Amino acid sequence: MKSIGISTEYITLGQFLKLADCIGTGGEVKFFLQEKRVLVNGEPDNRRGRKLRVGDAVEVEGFGSFKIGTR
């Protein structure tokens, strides 16, 4: 499981996907979430504005598992 560090209270799922190198630009988020299965804390989620906080676990189809941590 890879760790993605944040220094703010939360980041959105769209921002996370860019930090995790799953997508190259923010414009790709909508299409990416339509094509790939994303689980947040074990539950499917495709909302690009979903707030992720420290401790959340994210699994992205084809990219692996991630944990949100602090920087």
What is the arithmetic mean of pLDDT? Answer: 96
Structural class: alpha+beta
Level of helix content? 10-25%
Total strands: the figure is 7
Give the overall form.
globular
Identify the quaternary structure here: single chain
Q: How many angstroms does the end-to-end distance come to?
A: 16 Å
Low-confidence stretches: none
Structure notes:
The chain has 71 residues and is of the alpha+beta class. The protein is built from two helices and seven strands, in the order ββααβββββ. The protein has helices spanning 13-19, 29-35, and strands at residues 2-6, 11-12, 38-40, 43-44, 51-52, 57-60, 64-70. The chain has a five-stranded mixed β-sheet with strand order 1-7-6-3-4, with no helix packed on it. It has a two-stranded antiparallel sheet with strand order 2-5. β3 and β4 form a beta hairpin. The longest helix has 7 residues, at 13-19. The radius of gyration is 11 Å and the shape is globular. The mean pLDDT is 96.
What structural keywords apply?
71 residues; alpha+beta; 5-stranded mixed β-sheet; two-stranded antiparallel ribbon; 7 strands
Question: What's the helix and strand layout?
Answer:
Layout lengths: L1 E5 L4 E2 H7 L9 H7 L2 E3 L2 E2 L6 E2 L4 E4 L3 E7 L1
In short:
By secondary structure, the chain is α+β, with helices and mostly antiparallel strands. The chain is built from two helices and seven strands; from the N terminus they run ββααβββββ. The two termini are 16 Å apart.
